[in-house]
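Predict fold of Serine hydrolase domain-containing protein; 138 aa.
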Amino acid sequence: PYFEWFQFNKEFTEYTNLEECISHLCEYITSKGPFDGLLGFSQGATLSALLIGYQAQGKVLKDHPPIKFLISISGSKFRTPEICEVAYKEPIKAKSVHFIGEKDWLKLPSEDLAAAFQDPIIIRHPQGHTVPRLGTHL
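Predicted 3D structure, encoded as tokens:
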């Protein structure tokens, strides 16, 4: 089963509850942190990358030390221009590792997310939209 942080339309350009979700995550990170990095799967990776991009542009987490790294598993970029123009305005300088599945329906969006980072590390696996088991694949 999959769970979601927010809802979205088919084109992934309109979002419901996204601002509330961002506020909740920022409050959690600020009150429970500091955190050096973020790890997320699917929407969790997409949101984690967004927070790091927003933080780099001074939009969120202003009182939290810079988040240093992201581990993204099947993440993607938001597609609406209002978000892209801020979060991905410049290459994101935080270190990043991106797990991308060859059979993942988000393969191309995951590659787009990796391209938003400066010097991303990409680990490809033969599986789909899942947290990969890498033992025999590395």
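The domain at 39-138 is CATH 3.40.50.1820 (Rossmann fold).
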